[in-house]
Amino acid sequence: MTHSPVRTAIFPVAGLGTRFLPATKATPKELLPVLDTPLIQYAINEARDAGIQKMVFVSHSSKAAIERYVMDDGDLRQTLMARGKTELAKQLKETSLHALVDDVVFTFQHEPLGLGHAVLCARDHVLPGAVAVILPDDLILGRSCIGELIDTYQSSDCGYVVGTMPVESKDTEKYGILSVTERIGSLLRANGMIEKPKAAVAPSLDAVIGRYVLDEIIFDALAIQSPGAGNEIQLTDAINSNAKSVGLAGLRFSGKRFDCGNKAGMLQAALHVASEDPEYEEILGKFVFQGRSPIAA
Ligand code: G1P
């Protein structure tokens, strides 16, 4: 079966980021940096590396800084040019999204009605065909995770392909959990998924992380989806509602994932990135104690 190309990526970025208060009072969590690179930039790079043509950001009116970050800033470039910082101005132009993808849209989720609702908000802006959904909180370093999912989607008969990783039973209630029917290498075929189940009722220990490739039929499912966990419209529930007919698979992606939705994950990500740069060797060395490195993951 050949699927049509996946050309649109949706970035749900309307969340208030309460776990990072007070920093997120003024700075959207997606702009918090891992060393010097904001989370949203990693997500954008991942989508770009996967050949995405259109990016739809589902944002909130209080988070205008994301749009400022993503869009080209001609005034800033002119100021830099006037100060002789030509190279920096050139770099800004090259990394501004319009230079890299065909289309960028900002749309808004005015009320926090859930991830499923956020994805539905993007419906009128996506190109025909399946869509990619990327949650920037889940930072994945290494090969483009969404690219791997798209490749899997293209070569399988499943209409829904999601990123998955194994978790401990105490953690099932933090994730969507797949109901796995068959394991073929890194591919886990499933007939459904449940949002944040307690360990006792979790169908597996295979958690869904924030990467999805979804047949466009997902929008019909979302449009009629009633609120679920947390009284929110859950993407998990909409996927689950027609998983058997559309076909669902999880992919154990090859990259390394950091949960940057919390402080510990952010710290781990920063330490990991720093540990790969010789410039920080000395600083990190000072934190090595009793033969154990705090960055050993
Ligand atoms: C969301 C999804 C959940 C998924 C998780 C991955 O939950 O609802 O199914 O496992 O992202 O990070 P959240 O972390 O936004 O509560």
Comma- or semicolon-separated keywords:
297 residues, alpha/beta, 5-stranded mixed beta barrel, two-stranded antiparallel sheet, 11 helices, 24% strand, globular, binds 1-O-phosphono-alpha-D-glucopyranose
Structural account:
- With 297 residues, the chain is α/β, with parallel strands linked by helices.
- It has eleven helices and 13 strands.
- It has helices spanning 23-26, 39-49, 64-70, 74-82, 86-95, 115-121, 145-155, 218-223, 235-246, 263-275, 281-285, and strands at residues 8-12, 33-34, 37-38, 54-59, 103-108, 131-134, 138-141, 160-166, 176-184, 187-195, 206-214, 248-252, 256-259.
- The strands form three sheets. A five-stranded mixed β-barrel has the order 8-11-9-10-12. It has a two-stranded antiparallel ribbon with strand order 2-3.
- Helix 4 (74-82) runs antiparallel to helix 5 and helix 6 (115-121) packs across helix 9.
- The longest helix has 13 residues, at 263-275.
- The model has no long low-confidence stretch (mean pLDDT 92).
- The structure holds 1-O-phosphono-alpha-D-glucopyranose (G1P).
